[in-house]
Amino acid sequence: xxxxxxxxxxxxxxxxxxxxxxxxxxxxxxxxxxxxxxxxxxxxxxxxxxxxxxxxxxxxxxxxxxxxxxxxxxxxxxxxxxxxxxxxxxxxxxxxxxxxxxxxxxxxxxxxxxxxxxxxxxxxxxxxxxxxxxxxxxxxxxxxxxxxxxxxxxxxxxxxxxxxxxxxxxxxxxxxxxxxxxxxxxxxxxxxxxxx
Length: 196
Description:
The protein has 196 residues and is an all-beta fold. It has one helix at 167-171, and strands at 2-3, 7-13, 19-25, 34-35, 38-42, 52-55, 61-67, 76-83, 98-106, 109-115, 125-132, 137-144, 147-154, 160-165, 178-183. Strand 12 (137-144) and strand 13 (147-154) form a beta hairpin. The longest helix has 5 residues, at 167-171. The radius of gyration is 23 Å and the shape is elongated. The relative contact order is 0.18.
């Protein structure tokens, strides 16, 4: 399984032709399959340009880096096909050399908690959590009455992150209630909500 936005490394052997034709089936994909680089484009038997084409090496191997970022995938189970000729899903028969592999694509997610809770003005605090889906960083928002600020915190290889709010930070906030949000960059690794 992979998180949307991650790279899926595909490889195999094709002894039947100089090119390997790739397509994908799954939720909200065309019934005949879709091109990997444009999944909503239906694979059409006999039309090689409706497939993702990979050159087969002289030793009959092939490989392809399938980037799932910025493509219209939903979370779910998908099947990737490698075919020796441009034949779509509904017309694959035993005489057409092909192989397939199933993968699960998951949406990135985030969890966070603050300690201590509640935070008293002038008190240091920490925000810890997990940001799954391999984002490089998360964005921390603090919003209150006539106040808004953001900061970024790196995400560790194990998906954990820690943001430390200093005594000076919480002490600089005026009296009142504040909300702290942790924002994930999701599949495109961009914080699409900006302060304005």
